[in-house]
Amino acid sequence: MTETLHIIGGGMAGSEAAWQAAQAGVPVVLHEMRPEVGTFAHQTGNLAEMVCSNSFRSDDDEQNAVGLLHWEMRAAGGLIMEMADRHALPAGSALAVDRDPFAEDVTARLKAHPNVTVEYGEITELPTEGHWIIATGPLTSGSLAQSILKETGEESLAFFDAIAPIVYADTIDMEKAWFQSRYDKGETEEERKAYLNCPMSKEDYEGFIDALLAAEKTEFKPGETAGYFDGCLPIEVMAERGRETLRFGPMKPIGLTNPHQPDVKPYAVVQLRRDNALGTLFNIVGFQTKMKYGAQKEVLRRIPGLEKAEFARLGGIHRNTFINSPTLLDDQMRLKSRPNLRFAGQITGVEGYVESAAMGLLAGRLAAAEILGKPLASPPQDTAMGALVRHITGGADAKTFQPMNVNFGLFRPVDGLKGGRRGRKDRYKAYTDRAKAAWQQWLDAA
């Protein structure tokens, strides 16, 4: 009888790992502590619940590294990408997801799989026997985190991740806001109008920055420090770095024309993206925040078009933990001191839904191959998957290891191609062509 694979954590990584192993014919028990034990960020007991943004970011598999990762996961029969595609919302060149139906479908598919059993309840200690994948994510429970620290002898690294607010669509003033994707990107009219835009004059912007800087913020507990991941900075932290920072970040006014005042170029623009298929909810793009709830309402209602906004969810902040993977994990994502334990997802030091799911996909395949007696090599480093796992399991400097999104900076150069901005388009296409061929070859050999 084939040995059972146990997976702790039913987020993006754990769900994908369970699917891949089950599809390979390995019995899987997926352990999820929710809803019996909740977290600050989660609101349901569904598997693969999306807690921050509803975006899987760029879906361009020729010019974008995360889009390439989408392609590789689709080619590998990934459950997360299949459900994301099924519940996609218009988002220009990005892939945004209707989060609740997405999580409900992932949960249903896993529970219906004959090789998967879902067990609810908290695992508080690292198991000593059997095949296990630890995919507990950035909100690993305190007891299990302590057990991991005890085993590794390493101090856990930490950063703070902030959640963006969600607005009820019918409370947005459409006499001020308008629908348009930046540069009218998208193949359909719906995609070209995937974002809701709220324009700001210079006076509006300056007043907003003043209010943002003066607003009450969530306080840290004693001993905690604000080690933010740069890809998820709270807006107030960005504003503290310079008054113009937001105008060159999530509030940049480029590529947009206000139909209410076509002759007036906005000084800044706040974008909102549809958060559900009904179009009743919109999240404020890039507006992660640690402002206190009362201050959030006051500051956000200074945005033209949001003066009377009502919020389905306000922003929040929580601590994310991850292990020092370059020193602790081998290239099979196994804990060097306990090779029966693999780690996957954000706890390994990757950042983002897609990257987390990708590391779950890889861990699930590697674990299943080992259990079935058909060991599988890690994917080639010229693939997006291979570049990312190579980074976290040894490519990064352990002394300065920080969470990382997939990006072309992790890829080996292609000989004979021009560097710099002018050669970027050809260079990225060469990266993606090479990666697709290598990934398909790896899949065929499995």
Automatic annotation (TrEMBL):
SUPFAM superfamilies xrefs: FAD/NAD(P)-binding domain
Cofactor(s) the record lists:
FAD
Q: Which residues take part in binding FAD?
A: G9, G10, G11, M12, A13, G14
| Any one GO cellular component localisation term in the record | cytosol
- Family label: Belongs to the MnmG family. TrmFO subfamily.
**Its Enzyme Commission number?**
2.1.1.74
Protein name as catalogued:
Methylenetetrahydrofolate--tRNA-(uracil-5-)-methyltransferase TrmFO
Tell me which Gene Ontology terms the entry assigns under biological process.
tRNA methylation; tRNA wobble uridine modification
Please give the function described in this protein's UniProt entry.
Answer: Catalyzes the folate-dependent formation of 5-methyl-uridine at position 54 (M-5-U54) in all tRNAs.
Q: Record keywords: tRNA processing included?
A: yes
